[in-house]
């Protein structure tokens, strides 16, 4: 990898110098922390006067608590985690939060156990039939109650006619622990980021029944999150941090060789602590599902996409709130657009992107068609949240149907 990438080495000499030079940067052991790790270790931060101290976390709940307390300055975060804290749901007091940039799109998976596979449950229809005919509820794991993996799992199950809060049980398991839980028979399936889905397939502990990019091609996933207080106290440092990670994101996607070297870096004990052959294939878009199918995924994990990945779209933040409403995590409709405008740091992001030559001209709303045929474009979030056949709403209020 690069020792020191080309960059404005004199940038820190003026009034834009970061107010804080050492940043404590949290991450979870997932392949999509790549741009954060690359920025911190491969010379992308130093030109901007920053030292990034990487802090691996054991669970998303720990990461959340340390962000709120200030022990972490910023972190590789679940989109829904940042919004849940901002809205004060999920058992924590509301704290003003900020999304500085998108870190990646796509690249998560839903896996089922080897036990279900041996019973012939290898597709959505068989799963639907099994769920509605079996006396015992299946147990699915996701990584955080308001996180992306919970939302993808719920959305996918509902699209197959399975109510995620009534027809199955849902439990929270930190990403690196998924394999042990599956192996011990404590769960029947999970939704998680790589490399843990690929690892389960390689260990013959089950198969991938769906990738999250089949639910929503180029869906939002992890973000660079922090408190609003951090942005307000250290605006230059926040902007410099975005610049460093933008450059790292662009570097990863410049060539297949860069992706391969990134996979090698991530395999180290202090980052993912996982075999290279569990990380590299899916990082390069090479998927094998454990059922004999192999393909090059057109919507695999991506970190930059010429800036398309990194722009903190208002509609992306709004979508997670519509799902919180759908599943009873919010009792009333928030001001979807107003909240997103508070959280998404569009002005700061555009300043950073402009400085490092990344296109930031995209619209703040984007339109996508999801697996159930519904179009999400942010234009009518209240109507969208109410439009689903399967939900946890009762009349005009929602119930907290699942803990």
Automatic annotation (TrEMBL):
<keyword id="KW-0472">Membrane</keyword>
<keyword id="KW-1003">Cell membrane</keyword>
<keyword id="KW-0997">Cell inner membrane</keyword>
<dbReference type="GO" id="GO:0012505">
    <property type="term" value="C:endomembrane system"/>
</dbReference>
<dbReference type="Pfam" id="PF13379">
    <property type="entry name" value="NMT1_2"/>
</dbReference>
<keyword id="KW-0813">Transport</keyword>
<keyword id="KW-0732">Signal</keyword>
<dbReference type="InterPro" id="IPR044527">
    <property type="entry name" value="NrtA/CpmA_ABC-bd_dom"/>
</dbReference>
<protein>
    <submittedName>
        <fullName>Nitrate transport protein NrtA</fullName>
    </submittedName>
</protein>
